[in-house]
């Protein structure tokens, strides 16, 4: 009888422990993602951003961007112990009145790789990108998603060339073969298609149908030094932009340029930071004129370009650089101009935090003045914002903005100025109203 009782207890436990284990697993999933399932529809309604000449438009109103870079969002969304930083950053951005975050939609062959090998993806990492998009939607933040890196971090074009070489189909081991090798072009097209047609596991919406995505960026800081004429890069941009638009006609598309004028541009001698900048295989005007490109991008790093100059000279150049490109948007391109990276290194000569604030203020003032004149300057993105405890992800440009009261005031003041210029959008109404009333 005792033996039978023990057998019944053991048999019961065979069912009990798997049930408890499964229930624990469901609880863990809910803690990690359940709030997205419940709250996704509770976020503000977002509409697609469109272009009308030199302006972005949302719901019939001009849309100016006060944005920032947090390239690390997908990477941090992979693991449950770093995932809360994604929400913290997006929530803080919304609280500051920021409207668009630029971040990576790529990680090729590296740690936490999204694309493990050509056309093969880690579903765990893809779900992390799903999470970033759903979380951004919940906070009323749009995303500018970059599709590949010209540089080595997170795989970049180097990884694509390596894959082709390992498979025995590569034409050259040169990094620039990314732009002209047919096999590598197909690798990239397959990646683009996989992203644009991805169905978000939390929202059920395909990426190409999701207005949370502000725009696609073809490549971060493209350069093709092996062909300084610019013909190779121009051909790649034309082909890839047509391909993106063949799949996704709803979203805006940009290239990801740094803004350097090419060898045939008269501005290469008067505006470029040096002769070297005209020989990188890119050309701001020529590249950006392509009809399938909706807006042009520019980066601003005076400390990299003029390491020996004093701060006053650097800041004077920043204003000249920005105004020149806004003039291009108005007169040459007839498209919006976005300054998608700007920053001042804390390794700069004689660096003080107040110097960075002066730089930010100049960038913000140029954008605001452009908005006041109805010109093509459409927005700017700080490089880069972090949350606390991310020292290993910080370069010499990163800041936690709410740790500096004066920097925080500068950023929120710019948000309020742009809100007045464009009229507050429905998705911003409540938090911007509160934020800007506090500033009076």
UniProtKB/TrEMBL annotation:
Superkingdom field: Eukaryota
Protein name per the record: Uncharacterized protein
Organism: Rhododendron molle
